[in-house]
Amino acid sequence: MKELIRFLLLEDPNVRTVVFGTILLNLSASVVGSFAFLQKKSLSGDAVAHSILPGICMAFIFFQTKSLWVLLPGAFVTGWLSLYLVDLISRHSKLKQDTAIAVVLSVFFAVGIILLTYIQHSGSGAQSGLDSFLFGKAAALLEKDLITYAIISLLVIGVTVFFFKEFMLISFDATYAGSIGLPVRGLQLVLTTLTVIAIVTGIQSVGVVLMSAMLITPAVAARYWTDDLKQLLILAVFFNTIAAIMGAYISYRYPSMPTGPWIVVVISLFAFASILFAPKKGLVYSMYRVFKHKSLILKENILKALYQLGEQDNGFRDTRALNKLLAKRNLPLWQVYPALYRLMFEGYLQHTSKGWALTSEGMERGKRIVRLHRLWEMYLSKNLLLASDHVHDDAETIEHILTPELESRLEKSLNFPEVDPHSSKIPR
Amino acid sequence: MNDFYIILTGILVAVSCSILGTFLVLRKMAMVGDAISHAVLPGIVLSFFITGSRESIWMLIGAGLMGVFTTLIIEWLHKKTKLQEDASIGVTFTFLFALGVLLISYFAENIDLDQECVLYGEIAYVPLNTIMLFGLELPKAIVMLAVVLILITAVIFFFYKEWVITTFDAPYAASIGMSTVLWNYILMSMVSFTTVASFESVGAILVVAFLVVPASAAYLITDSLPKTLFFAVLFGIISSVAGYYSASILDVSISGAMATAAGIIFIICFILQWIQKQIHTSPSILQAEEQDV
Fold first, then answer.
1. Nearest CB to A92; choose among B86, B115, B274
2. ipTM of the assembly?
């Protein structure tokens, strides 16, 4: 606990560098990555990340320096080239885009490995540290590099904010953006350039393989909480920052643990948690909605069956044994029991030792369902001219959905019918 | 003899990968293959830690399960939560790979695996680790790769018809009662086997090059499945041999050179099909214009 407080207060200058470093490195990635995610280009980031390696090695071979101002432009050139090649291959051959991405990323990476081993074997000694681009070494960041990264991140975010509306348009509806006179290709070029820059800077924090996670995973996590692009970007940055701090903390406490993979694991857990538990869009919530709807249908079907039994012998509120009910409508027992008891608690049914009976509320509700069912059958056969033996299934589903307003309009348009196509009386 | 073993290892990896890669490319699942080759890492580390050996059959089984598990997560994210497919792939494999790297750091004192070895392997060490078999001293990696290759060839050969139908016409396959899902999972487990068997020699990223590049190159210049398979395997063998010799001349990573050689073959095939397309399309464009006039 004491350690955590010490960490959070940023007393140690090293901790300060690492924390701000990990946040800064991925800040721009989570912003432009959200656009890549929305444009369904999540995996092209993977191609760029792998293709950066040969660029960095070549810049090092030519200039024999590890200054970021030399290595980063080298990385930028091959990163860009990879995207161009992916586009070229998928446009001028029968290969699909994902195959083109896989081909380009693996070959570029292979060239990178060749260059890296060439540098190592030529033994100039100065090469140590180049492999931090392979795996990411956020914990080994220097303070002077921090300023470089801060400038780049601010630049990327500044341009994104400036072109926010335009980027939004080309991400959601490029055709419309073109029709109102926006230079779509040019804007796309700017966005792609920003993406490459963001990947080039971010790669120091998590490394080649995990870089695509920094682009898309925050956006995926954020997507389940909002439909608004601005909120999505802010949330993505927020998730990213929390993950960066947690990653930095873990490798601060356990120095043998690498920061990058921890950041990725934390942000992935955020994403999985959002996918499962986010309100409205989360899986658990949508499963709950399906469950609620299904149980509503089940309950209404039970009320309807009891009402129809009542129609047969004119004893709407008579007590019916369970097997009579099941004979009318066959339902699995494990579903029927809980539904019956729930109906009882809601006041629609009464339970005695002999069986189940409708209360007056239950009878009204059962009557309404039967009525909607028959009205809809009437409507289908009269207005859509369907044969009377084809209308039942459709009515079976819609009877649970029709609102009172629709009900009265149906009645009106059918001129208040007495019976349905099967000559059953429509109850009133 | 060492040269021979290294080239043989390269060829075994290349042939297994090219065969499977052809089906991955045809099924438009190249990136799923990429994802699986990364995602088996935690499986490898865990079984390596539990059994303490590299050649264990349990490692293959563990990785096979991991591959199917990865496919399941990707499909679950895509179908159940409506996350787009590329994002499902990206989220899944980066998570599992990060987990794998963390496991390596956690077990670092107990196992001799390092990150670089995982990423791009070291094929030059293959002849050092040997096993006695039928009175012969053979490198372990070669024995394992040979077993995997025989397994893959057998599964593809005996069920060739099923592979063709499920690859090219999934709805028809379903209509005659073939389970496309089952064949998909079999393919994914074979991809996982191959990744595990190859990872020691070529690493987790370069195995993707062997899976995808020769197969895509072959697919560009052929128009029937047997021909594509034949050329994919041929390209795989050529790039292994050429890669080995160029690597020993330049004194660089052997597996990197093999993958780069495959890349060069891909570029040649791409240019060939491009020229061919120009020759085929230009007269027809002219004809069309003449008709318009």
1. B274
2. 0.88
Residues contacting B259, CB < 8 A, separation 6+: A106, A107, A109, A110, A113, B202, B206, B209, B210, B213, B239, B243
- Co-location of A274 and A286 in the same domain: no
Choose the final residue of a domain: A263, A278, A293: A278
Q: What angle do CA A249, A253, A259 make, to 5 degrees?
A: 50
For residues A114 and A51, is the Cβ–Cβ distance under 8 A? no
* Separation CA A405–CA A167 (nearest Å): 43
Which residues does A127 contact at the CB level (< 8 Å), separation at least 6? Answer: A60, A119, A120
Measure the CA–CA gap between B178 and B174, rounded to whole angstroms: 5
Q: Answer yes or no: do A129 and A145 share one domain.
A: yes
- Cβ–Cβ < 8 Å for A79, A55: yes
Q: Quick check: B20 contacting A, CB < 8 Å?
A: no
- CB-based contact B97 A209, cutoff 8 Å: yes
- Read off the tokens for B270: 């791409």
Give how far A252 is from chain B: nearest CA, Å. Answer: 15
Of A238, A253, A278, at which residue does a domain stop?
A278
Q: What is the CATH number of the domain that holds A92?
A: 1.10.3470.10
Which among B80, B95, B216 has CB closest to A268?
B95
**For residue A254, what is the enclosing H or E element?**
none
Please state, in angstroms and rounded to a whole number, the distance separating the CA atoms of residues A335 and A347: 19
Bridging pattern class, strands B130-133 and B136-139: antiparallel
Q: Are residues A29 and A79 in the same domain?
A: yes
Give me the residues of A, 133-152, that contact B with CB < 8 A: 134-135
Residue type (1 letter), A229: L
Per-residue pLDDT of chain A (428 residues; tens, 9 = 90+): 777 777 777 777 777 887 888 888 888 888 888 998 888 888 888 889 889 989 988 998 888 877 778 888 888 999 999 999 998 998 888 888 889 999 999 999 999 988 988 888 776 655 566 766 777 776 667 777 788 888 888 899 999 999 999 899 988 888 888 898 888 888 988 988 998 888 888 887 778 888 888 889 999 999 999 988 899 999 999 999 999 888 888 888 887 778 888 889 999 999 999 999 888 888 888 889 999 998 888 888 888 888 888 888 888 888 888 888 888 888 888 888 888 888 888 888 888 888 888 888 888 888 889 888 888 888 888 888 888 788 888 888 888 888 888 888 888 888 888 888 887 888 87
Question: CB neighbours of B116 closer than 8 A, spacing ≥ 6?
Answer: A131, A134
Q: Does A275 touch chain B (CB under 8 A)?
A: yes
